[in-house]
Amino acid sequence: MEDSATAGKLRDYLKRATTELERSRRRVRELEERDREPVAIIGMGCRYPGGVRTPEDLWRIVHEGIDVVTEFPTDRGWDVEAIYDPEPGAPGKSYVRHGGFLHDAAECDPAFFGISPKDAPGTDPQQRLLLEVAWEAFERAGIDPHTVKGTPTGVFVGLMHHDYIGGTISGSIVSGRIAYTLGLEGPAVTMDTACSSSLVALHSAIQSLRKGECSLALAGGAAVMASPEMFIEFSERRALSPDGRCHSFSDDAAGAAWAEGAGMLLVERLSDALRSGHEVLAVVRGSAVNQDGASNGLTAPSGPAQIRVIQQALADARLAPHHIDAVEAHGTGTTLGDPIEAQAVIAAYGQDRPENRPIWLGSIKSNMGHPQAAAGVGAVIKMVMAMRHGTLPRTLHVEKPSTAVDWTAGDIRLLTEPQSWDTPDGRPRRAGVSSFGISGTNAHTILEEAPPADTDRPAPERAALPVVPWVLSGKGSDAVQRQAERLLTAAGDLDPYDVGYSLATTRALFTHRAAVTGRDRHELLASLRAVADGSQAAVVVPEPGRLGILFSGQGSQRPGMGRTLHAAFPVFAAAFDEICAAFDAHLDRPLREVMFEEPADPAASPLHQTVYTQAALFTFETALYRLLEHWGIRPDLLAGHSIGEVVAAHVAGVLELKDAVVLVAARGRLMQELPAGGTMVSLLASEAEVTPLLTDGVDIAAVNGPRAVVVSGDEEAVLAVAAKVEKTTRLKVSHAFHSRRMDPMLDAFREVLAGLTFHEPALPVVSNVTGRMADELTSPEYWVRHVREAVRFHDGVTALAAEGATRFLEVGPDAVLTTMAQGVVPDVIGTQRRDRDEDAALIDAVCRLHLTGTGPDWTVVFAGGRKADLPTYPFRRDRHWEDAPILQAERSAAARAGGDAADPFWELVREQDVTAVAATLGVADETSVAAVVPALAAWHEQRQANATADGWRYRVTWEPLAPAATPALGGHWLAVVPACDDPWTSAVLTGLTDRGLHVDSVTAPEAAGRTELAGLLAGRGGVDGVLSLLAPVTELTSTAALVQALGDTEITAPLWCVTRDAVSHGPAAEVSGFAQAQVWGLGRVAALEHPDRWGGLIDLPAEIGPQTVARLAALLGDAGGEDQVVIRESGAYGRRLEHAPARAGAPWKPSGT
């Protein structure tokens, strides 16, 4: 026995040990898997050269093979002429004047991110860009950015430039401000490994996700060159491509080319993304970071290190080299770096590959240049889009592959042409992405196509929603309007239900809101246009407050009520049917049949018999309340009018459904059994005025407002009282409710109430009897008094307001109480109106409630909705830029001043100490120095003497203007046009009309004088502005006469005079209409003499394009304080007067006229 017991214990122990060992092994496997778990890219946002503002824009330029390199920006205070020297290596000069620039880097929406107007110009544009693309990454992932506040979301940012005047020198602030602004509580790290920064940031984000430090992570980088120092420094090294383009892996590669950009990825563990239902754009299978170490030079690339980092990334991804289809290379176009990188790719990926499966090689830098700290994330976005489109884009500027690379050493192909991206056996597409920092920090990432959607899983069932709401919001009414404009262009091909779901659940809610509804796309888009053109203005959400629900009483019923809602909304139908079934045991006819019946004569409907009326109102209102409750609309306070208070008591939990039905049925039946006769009349008078008029047989039945009293009782007596009031309305009722004519039913009703069970209310209810918060709802006697005494509705809603209610929602078949309660609280909304379809009225009411700040749970309203790709938030485009970049400002100032006058060198020159000057310069031949010292001394003396005069020099420049922060608003304009048939003039007028402006034309006869023009303009006032198109084809005197004639006719609308190709806005611009310069001179004088009716001067190009007209319409809608503007297809430019000190060198050569 003892041996048996011992064996049993041993078996039990071994079982426990085996189980524990298996559990431990499983846990180890889980930990190992977690350390290597793929990471999903679920959102992307970006800004890159060429006007790229979205990943789709980026795909367009690489797919179409577009080169987006441009000249230096003109709006950053760079002295472009001073720094350019075509000779490579010249100190302080750049032999390059092209690059990939964000020409709108100065434009931002600082207020959106809580940056004050005072701080905005001093905030680094890289910071501002990263805030925008981070926000967009969340929106594009279908995540409301407000919902991540307080979550362990990480921020990993690559940044390398710190040359912005007033900008934050510490890069840590950049990631910290993103976390601060969005309320993110995971790691926030800024890293600078130069050109590999953003890919290193992605690697760090992946590691943090795998370790559980964060649940989501933002990873990206930005580069904006506030000064031209990168060009100057690398020009001095002769390391730049002369044409400003990266000739990646080409035999004619001659150096790098600088670009700018900002990109952000939102990443999440793949298992979490699939579980959360987030769309997976692509998967990061593995990544690695290493260093060149003690290689052949600090800044020289290391082939062995690049091979190692690729191998480490493959190991992290648990993939073999032949599993990778393509490499998005660093590929900067240098004669040293590109061959090293190509050989490393050949060694790591190009060996032992399957037949006809070469490794493809390309680089996005050939399209835009090298965006430095934003390069890696841009490359990732490119490859994610390539995977999704199944195409490998071509690399530009490769006339001939580099002969410094042995392309036969492995199976590798340059992407000189686009390639269809097919994979064997349907395996996922995969690509490697490389970024190598100038200091030797290398990064490599393995991307994989997103896993296929689970087609076996049934799509979630959509909620019944016959009328679809679209809700918009923004930080300002202009933002709502711009969002509507954007949505109009995007929503045409999208499912309206999914658009509504995405607008309501994946976008943040702000203070300014608008909502539109429609049964189909056509109706929705038509309503959306009203928001876009400003005819339906956005509303401002009021201060927070409590919601009171009001339940309607008798008089609101209508035949057919509930039928449409029953057919449209299953939740309503289920509650409705349940209540009807409960009532059918107490009524002679099925209640549903009575309610849905619509006789030819509505007045003859049995619904108007109080036995059915009360049951129908209770049924309809309770079912509608259950639907609203299902949608997440939950009141803070309740009230009702007469029978409506019974509904309020039921939904507050005072009576369970069975008892509530007994009460309502008995109440209606007993009232119906009362003798016919009696009447009710509504009086336009106060209670104080009515009370002295009361006689026997007349009672006050209701006090609905300060001057809205209903009297009830014996017909003759009631009518006698009514005759003493100026304005009265006789009510169509079956009985004289809330009067002494109810007395015969009270005892029987009391008996019914005695058999019911009452509970304390779960929600506060206002009493009709007292007009105060109810405290007797559990007393049967209270409900007896409720039948007999007056309905103190006005006191009740006033009490609700005193309890903090700021908005009322009426639940009933018509908006009766809505009218009565107007003025008590700011917002009173009826869920139904008898003159509207039930479903449309209900959805409209829900939207109106949303506009007050108390909306539904949209995830329930749009159950089963799918994320639609909608436009992201329409940030304002206000210009904020500190004009003088740090280093260039110092260099330019020194050059203009000719150096420090107190410098010892200039003391030696002034003293003409040849020996000392030669020694200072390190020149042995004093004779050559002696020949120039006198001239140098004279030059410096004259320079110093002219220093004051130099401070008086100014020049006219043209500053690029930011796009209008608000949409171009339509307006009524009067155009004064020449008598001749001018196609250019017609193109301008047609374009403005197409842009929503209403334009009336007045034709001015050739050589018309002041008096004649005044006669033509008489009675043409009342417009928003006057547009003169006379200048291109008439003499100056016509424009002068127009200015005078407008004054004679007292037309004070601002006058804008338009010229055609008359103004040069840049040194390279040539003009053909220079004779019209006279109009600009006249206009400047008119602006001084008639500032009250002067608009400005506009110069348009000789050829009118779509962007020109759009900018003109925007300018006329809101000039933003500008009054001298040049508009071209490339942009709009405002006239500026800036300081222009004398420049040493060649004498001044006049140009122009």
TrEMBL record:
<dbReference type="Pfam" id="PF00698">
    <property type="entry name" value="Acyl_transf_1"/>
</dbReference>
<dbReference type="InterPro" id="IPR032821">
    <property type="entry name" value="PKS_assoc"/>
</dbReference>
<dbReference type="Pfam" id="PF16197">
    <property type="entry name" value="KAsynt_C_assoc"/>
</dbReference>
<dbReference type="InterPro" id="IPR016035">
    <property type="entry name" value="Acyl_Trfase/lysoPLipase"/>
</dbReference>
<dbReference type="InterPro" id="IPR050091">
    <property type="entry name" value="PKS_NRPS_Biosynth_Enz"/>
</dbReference>
<dbReference type="GO" id="GO:0004312">
    <property type="term" value="F:fatty acid synthase activity"/>
</dbReference>
<dbReference type="InterPro" id="IPR016036">
    <property type="entry name" value="Malonyl_transacylase_ACP-bd"/>
</dbReference>
<protein>
    <recommendedName>
        <fullName>Ketosynthase family 3 (KS3) domain-containing protein</fullName>
    </recommendedName>
</protein>
<dbReference type="Pfam" id="PF18369">
    <property type="entry name" value="PKS_DE"/>
</dbReference>
<dbReference type="GO" id="GO:0004315">
    <property type="term" value="F:3-oxoacyl-[acyl-carrier-protein] synthase activity"/>
</dbReference>
<keyword id="KW-0012">Acyltransferase</keyword>
<dbReference type="Pfam" id="PF02801">
    <property type="entry name" value="Ketoacyl-synt_C"/>
</dbReference>
<dbReference type="GO" id="GO:0006633">
    <property type="term" value="P:fatty acid biosynthetic process"/>
</dbReference>
<dbReference type="Pfam" id="PF00109">
    <property type="entry name" value="ketoacyl-synt"/>
</dbReference>
<keyword id="KW-0045">Antibiotic biosynthesis</keyword>
<dbReference type="InterPro" id="IPR014030">
    <property type="entry name" value="Ketoacyl_synth_N"/>
</dbReference>
<dbReference type="Pfam" id="PF08990">
    <property type="entry name" value="Docking"/>
</dbReference>
<dbReference type="InterPro" id="IPR015083">
    <property type="entry name" value="NorB/c/GfsB-D-like_docking"/>
</dbReference>
<dbReference type="InterPro" id="IPR001227">
    <property type="entry name" value="Ac_transferase_dom_sf"/>
</dbReference>
<dbReference type="InterPro" id="IPR014031">
    <property type="entry name" value="Ketoacyl_synth_C"/>
</dbReference>
<dbReference type="InterPro" id="IPR036299">
    <property type="entry name" value="Polyketide_synth_docking_sf"/>
</dbReference>
<dbReference type="InterPro" id="IPR014043">
    <property type="entry name" value="Acyl_transferase_dom"/>
</dbReference>
<dbReference type="GO" id="GO:0033068">
    <property type="term" value="P:macrolide biosynthetic process"/>
</dbReference>
<keyword id="KW-0511">Multifunctional enzyme</keyword>
<dbReference type="GO" id="GO:0031177">
    <property type="term" value="F:phosphopantetheine binding"/>
</dbReference>
<keyword id="KW-0597">Phosphoprotein</keyword>
<keyword id="KW-0808">Transferase</keyword>
<dbReference type="InterPro" id="IPR020841">
    <property type="entry name" value="PKS_Beta-ketoAc_synthase_dom"/>
</dbReference>
<dbReference type="InterPro" id="IPR016039">
    <property type="entry name" value="Thiolase-like"/>
</dbReference>
<dbReference type="InterPro" id="IPR018201">
    <property type="entry name" value="Ketoacyl_synth_AS"/>
</dbReference>
<dbReference type="InterPro" id="IPR036291">
    <property type="entry name" value="NAD(P)-bd_dom_sf"/>
</dbReference>
<keyword id="KW-0596">Phosphopantetheine</keyword>
<dbReference type="InterPro" id="IPR041618">
    <property type="entry name" value="PKS_DE"/>
</dbReference>
<feature type="domain" description="Ketosynthase family 3 (KS3)">
    <location>
        <begin position="36"/>
        <end position="449"/>
    </location>
</feature>
